Amino acid sequence: MNDKNQPIEFGKQDASYSAAGKIEGIRKLVDSFYQYMDRLDEAKIIRAMHPKDLTVSSDKLACFLSGWLGGPRLYSEKYGSISIPMIHKHLSVASAERDAWLLCMKHAANDQPYHESFKKYLLEQLFVPAERIRQVSK
């Protein structure tokens, strides 16, 4: 709830970015996300799709999420334009891989001090690009 006891409208302006803790909170989310990818058996296949050193992958995901959540468009500033489905097109992503990615993100979101309504919103919204990646996968 905001100061006027009205529900926060995630997806409007920078409400989602702020709810995620801005870039600092997003980086914590991403760090936790990759820790789950390293630990969960369900994520072994998707972890193998990433480089051993996750430094650049972590930065790219955090930068992408910043702009995607309504904050600064750090990804385009640092890495250029992006089409999430197209940069993942070369990977073999079926429903199991999509779901493993979302499971890691769910665990990571649960580790954050986010309001429950934002966690729910975030995971629902992340399903969209995850599904688009699955759809264009080889």
Question: What is the approximate shape?
Answer: globular
Provide the β-strand percentage band: under 5%
One letter per element, helices H and strands E, the order comes to: HHHHHHHH
- Give me the count of strands: 0
Kindly report how far apart the N and C termini lie. Answer: 43 Å
Structural class by helix and strand composition:
mainly alpha
> What is the residue-averaged pLDDT?
93
Helix content: 55-70%
Number of helices: 8
Describe this structure in words.
The protein has 138 residues and is an all-alpha fold. It is built from 8 helices and no strands. The mean pLDDT is 93. Helix content is 65%, strand content 0%. The termini are far apart.
